[in-house]
Amino acid sequence: MTVPTSAEPSVHRQMLAAVPRLRAFAISLTGNVDAADDLVQEALTRGLSNLDRFQIGTNMQAWLFTILRNLFHSEYRRRKREVEDVDGAHAERVAVLPDQMSHLEFEDMRTALTKLPVEQREALLLVGAEGLSYEEAAQICGTHLGTIKSRINRARTRLAELLSIEAGEDIGPDRLVRAVMDARSV
Fold it and tell me: Please, are residues 80 and 152 in contact by the beta-carbon 8 Å criterion?
């Protein structure tokens, strides 16, 4: 049984009367007053647009609570699939860059690495590419911390010369190349 036109004012009053309890329920679900208000507004909007589905004689408040609860859970499921990425860090990790330039940069880097002394190349790859700390690299190489820092600094300087890198933006988008060349990455 749908809502007859003559019953609409009564139904609207029932809807308005349910708002404080809907709001309290929404706040308890979301833990946030603004999100709760948005949820109540959406539930009322859905209720009004589906008023023809409301059965006269049933509990308006329960019907609206069901709509609100379903909206909350639908939003929750949607948010679980989404990743909040305010600073763009996640997008940067999953972004797919064009293959051609990174492949060429990688080959250039690989060729330049072969021109470094073994000790410099080893230290640079342990810290820059593998992400180890200077201390860990020193331990692996069986040398002092200062020696590792010196080897990495000389390796980066020589690679910059070999690859004609004058500024940070000359490095390009490849993360491995950036990690090896960027002193701030360690």
Answer: no
The closest alpha carbon to 117, from 158, 145, 174, 82, belongs to 158
Collect all residues with Cβ–Cβ distance below 8 Å to 128 and sequence separation of at least 6.
Answer: 152, 179, 180, 181, 182, 185, 186
In single-letter form, the type of residue at position 90 comes to H
Question: What's the pTM value of the predicted model, to 2 decimals?
Answer: 0.42
Question: Greatest CA span in the chain, whole angstroms?
Answer: 90
- Which contacts of 169-173 are long-range, i.e. CB under 8 A and separated by 24 or more positions? 172/101, 172/102, 172/105, 173/97, 173/101, 173/102
Question: Which structural domains are found in the chain, ordered by start?
Answer: 5-81 (1.10.1740.10), 97-185 (1.10.10.10)
Intra-chain end-to-end CA distance of the chain, in Å: 69
pLDDT in tens, 4-49: 454 577 888 889 999 999 999 999 888 889 999 999 999 999 999 9
Let me know if 180 is exposed, middle or buried by CB neighbors in 10 A (0-12, 13-18, 19+): buried
